[in-house]
Specification:
15% strand, 71 residues, alpha+beta, 2 strands, 17% helix
């Protein structure tokens, strides 16, 4: 079972992609439309809190100051 510190997840972005990684987008009905809450994560590879989101989800030891993440 996967354990994630939810305080590192961005509450206003797609939790599916933050927890399951970019693979989550392959079967998501919101991908590619304005309703998608993970668009910035897909563009930058990071959530709004600055944590990297990899193929399998949040990478807890890869953090960057969110002010330095360019969209």
């Amino acid at each position: 079972m996967k354990h994630i510190d939810t305080s590192r997840l961005s509450p206003n972005e797609c939790w599916g992609v933050q927890i399951n990684g970019m693979k989550h987008c392959k079967n998501c009905k919101w991908t590619g439309i304005s309703a998608c809450e993970g668009q910035n994560i897909v563009k930058t590879g990071r959530n709004a809190k600055g944590y990297s989101i990899g193929d399998t989800g949040l990478v807890e030891d890869d953090w960057m100051n969110p002010d330095q993440v360019s969209i």
